[in-house]
Design brief:
five-stranded parallel sheet; 8 helices; Rossmann fold; about 230 residues; four-stranded antiparallel sheet; Arc Repressor Mutant, subunit A; globular; 12 strands; single chain; alpha/beta
């Protein structure tokens, strides 16, 4: 697996590169946002580890521009900014996961494994239609009455799971299993962040579909009859 590591702090970059190499990942490194964007758009990587605070073009700008350019490579954002608003901003920009610094090596590696593992049932070839929504999982595109919007990998996986089970309650445990994987150490707040993001995506495409919270049970995607 080939990883792009974007980190401008030399000591941390070298430490992360050594950790990844020791775990049999092939790693390329860069220090600036401009270089990161060029490399991400090359399509040569299976995963990107992206620092948020970079010289010149910051990590959020890199991520937005890469997603707008059609780059769907999984991105794990690494940053010292760990407030809820900072995490939401990173996820909203297109990050698939968000890991605050400092972090344990074991957690970093677990999140990398989870990002690179998606259940086969969540990767169909066809479009998925429910009510006024159309989801193209391979392209990570969601279309509604107001247009089309691109999704991050986790947003797409979560929305696909909910759409395939529209009208039924999907538990938080099932969401965790299918979106993050069985071995991932995920805080409860991460699921809440993505539920918030999915609701925003539904509004962006002008859908009348509602993602309801069923307290103590999970979530239900209620699709109105067109």
């Amino acid at each position: 697996m080939r990883v792009l590591l974007v980190e401008d702090e030399t000591a941390l970059q070298e430490a992360l590169r050594d950790i990844l190499n020791a775990n049999r990942y092939t790693v390329d490194c860069c220090e600036t946002g401009t270089d990161a964007l060029d490399l991400m758009c090359s399509g040569s990587y299976d995963l990107v580890l992206l620092d948020r605070m970079l010289p010149g073009l910051d990590g959020l700008s890199v991520l937005r521009q890469a997603r707008d350019a059609g780059v769907h490579t999984p991105v794990l954002m690494l940053t010292a900014l760990d407030a809820v608003g900072d995490r939401v901003a990173g996820l909203d920009a297109g990050a698939d996961d968000y890991l605050p610094k400092p972090f344990a090596t074991e957690e970093l590696l677990a999140r990398i494994r989870a990002l690179c593992r998606r259940p086969a049932e969540l990767e169909p070839n066809e479009s998925l239609c429910r009510g006024d929504l159309t989801l193209q999982p391979k392209l990570r595109l969601l279309t509604g009455p107001a247009g089309t919007h691109s999704l991050s990998g986790r947003e797409c996986a979560m929305l696909e799971l909910l759409m395939r089970n529209a009208g039924s309650v999907v538990s938080r445990e099932r969401i965790l299993l299918h979106v993050w994987g069985p071995d991932s150490e995920v805080e409860s707040g991460n699921i809440d962040n993505y539920i918030h993001l999915v609701r925003r995506r539904l509004k962006l495409v002008g859908s009348h579909t509602v993602l309801q919270t069923r307290r103590g049970a999970g979530y239900c995607l209620e699709v109105p009859v067109c």
